[in-house]
Amino acid sequence: MPPATWLILADDLTGAADCAIAFARRGLEASVGWYAGAAGETAGAVLAIDADSRRLPPAQAAARHVALLRAHHRPGAGLIKKIDSTLRGQPAAELAATHQALRAAGQPMLAILAPAFPATGRTTRDGRVRIDGMPLEATPLWARDHTYASADLGEILAQAGLAARLLPLDTLRAGHAALAASLRAALAEGLDAVICDAEAVEDLAALARASLGLAGQVYWAGSGGIAAALAAALPDATEAPRAPTLPPARGGVLVVVGSIAEASRAAAARLAAEDAASRFSIPAATLRAGPAAPDWAALSTGIAASIGGGRDTLVEIAADPAADLAQGAALAEGLAALLRPAAARMGGLFATGGETACALLTQLGVHGIRLLEEVEPGVPLGITQGALEVPVMTKAGAFGHDATILRSLARLRGFPRAPAPAVNQ
């Protein structure tokens, strides 16, 4: 019988959200929490937790996932170990540690590894990841940020000590009975994982339908693609409910681009080119220096004034080809501190880069996000939970296109808003 509740463990905030939103779109109450906040305070049938482990060494990332698994996973709940669709971070170490913890708890389950997310151009062929048909190793994403020697999933799992078998496209497309038989054979053989090719949404849909019947014996590892397929395959799945009513409008929307990925930079440039938002570019040196930086006060005050005046406002970390990606967390914390006066007055938040969004929301006393719907693939909309209640949209840095931010802001303005509370005279 399919699980009634789900736990999603992710290595960053945007990944947690774009998996959980798939279930919210199908009528399940879903929320996102994070390691630095009170993740246990969120409620609903689906809980996604950002372990904030993308930049951690393998052993630390693995330990963090095991701790969250032990604290939040319950027998009978479906489990998704969300991994980056381009294999950033420590997916193999996290998956191996999750697998070992399940076995130690008497749950010897098979991992169904399916990182493909066809709606965003991520596919898997012959056990190797591709982006828009190009081998992952040949892309700028891989050149800038990669953990493994290649994108061969079999080799990556073998190095982590996991015995796996490839389920090629022919198997996924052979029909329900044949695919389900292949999964049962892997279980009977005692394999740790199966690696699943997928080039289309239909491939993941077939995999979800065949594997849901094995709930309790399998768990899933992948990106938003497999989460969407599983949510759609649930027997009571429905289409998205009617448009939500958002909290009363306050100031302008704060658009934060903390990612250096080309897709996010192009979307920010398009937003500025169409004069749809005031634009502030923050030097990395300013964020490293903190309030002692000579331009800190002027930038923080200017951004807050723009937001408070009702103007949508774009804030981005200035592009730096020589930037050290290991400094990402420190820069995100610095940016959150700079933006805190503005964020307290914002009418909404659009954030690319999970570290930045998580750092900013945590500083504002937010411990989670209640998810509502998906404005486009990989861009979920939710309402913050905690000391501040505002609409928030998150996007993984490499997702989307140059019109993503513009379209998302237009969609946000199209939702009905609750009336502002009356002011006593």
Q: How many beta-strand runs?
A: 18
Q: How does the major sheet shape up?
A: 15 strands, mixed
* CATH homologous superfamily grouping of the largest domain: Putative sugar-binding, N-terminal domain
Looking at the structure, what is the overall shape?
Answer: globular
The CATH architecture of the largest domain can be named as 3-Layer(aba) Sandwich
State the distance separating the first and last CA atoms: 58 Å
* Overall mean confidence score, pLDDT: 90
- Report the C-alpha radius of gyration, rounded: 21 Å
Provide the helix percentage: 25-40%
Family: Belongs to the four-carbon acid sugar kinase family.
GO molecular function: kinase activity
Domain Four-carbon acid sugar kinase N-terminal: 7-230
Protein name: Four-carbon acid sugar kinase family protein
What is the fold's blueprint, element by element?
Blueprint: E1 6-10, H1 13-24, E2 30-34, E3 46-50, H2 58-72, E4 78-82, H3 91-104, E5 110-114, E6 122-125, E7 128-131, E8 134-135, H4 140-144, H5 153-159, E9 164-167, H6 169-172, H7 176-189, E10 193-196, H8 201-212, E11 218-222, H9 224-233, E12 253-257, H10 262-273, E13 278-282, H11 284-289, H12 296-308, E14 313-317, H13 328-343, E15 348-352, H14 354-363, E16 366-376, E17 379-386, E18 391-395, H15 404-414
Parallel strand pairs: 1-3, 1-4, 2-3, 4-11, 5-10, 5-11, 9-10, 12-14, 12-15, 13-14, 15-18
Antiparallel strand pairs: 2-16, 6-7, 7-8, 16-17, 17-18
